[in-house]
Every structure is written in C-alpha cells, then in structure tokens.
Amino acid sequence: MIQSPIIIDIREREVVDPTTMGDVLLTAIGLSGVLAVAGLLLGILLGGLFIVWKRRRDATRLDGPRAGAESDAVHISPYA
Q1: What is the reported pTM?
Q2: Nearest residue to 57 (alpha-carbon basis) of 68, 46, 44
Q3: What is the rounded CA–CA span in Å between residue 28 and residue 20?
C-alpha cells in the first residue's frame, strides 16, 4: 500500500498594524473637531450673509433705512 505524500502549504500572514484604543480615540476626537470647525465656519458665514442681506434690504427701502423696523419686530401679547 503506497501512501501519497502529505503536503502542507505554509503561508506567512500579512503584517497589520494593531489598532489601539488610543488610535480610535484620536480619530474620533479629530473627526469631532473637524465637524465642530465646519459648523462654526458655516454659522459665521450664514450670520454674515443674513446681516448683509438685512442691511441691503433696509438701504433699498424708499421710506428710509429704518422705516419698516416695527414690522420686523416680534410682538408677543396674551390678547392676540
């Protein structure tokens, strides 16, 4: 009885850098920082646009820059 030879194929694994808890925490803080800065810049940009828009709108009114200021105010009354 002739047996066939046993062949074992040994392959080396690829070396992967282990991800530590510090790496995960640093990535999360970095992503949160990027989102916070993006939100801050967007808020400043939109705030500036609203201010410019209101100033231009008031400057183009025929009655003067503050003629319609009363209509812009919010009136809260319990009898309304």
Answers
A1: 0.51
A2: 68
A3: 13
Q: Residue holding tokens 């066939």?
A: 4
Query: C-alpha dihedral over 22, 23, 29, 31, to 10 degrees?
Result: -170
Residue identified by tokens 């062949």 is: 7
Asked whether the beta carbons of 46 and 54 are under 8 A apart, the reply is no
* CA–CA gap between residue 74 and residue 76 (Å, rounded): 6
Q: Read off the pLDDT of residues 7-58 as tens digits, 9 standing for 90 and up.
A: 888 888 888 888 899 999 999 999 999 999 999 999 999 999 999 999 888 8
| Encoded tokens for 79 | 């009898």
Closest CA to 32 of 40, 43, 44, 22: 40
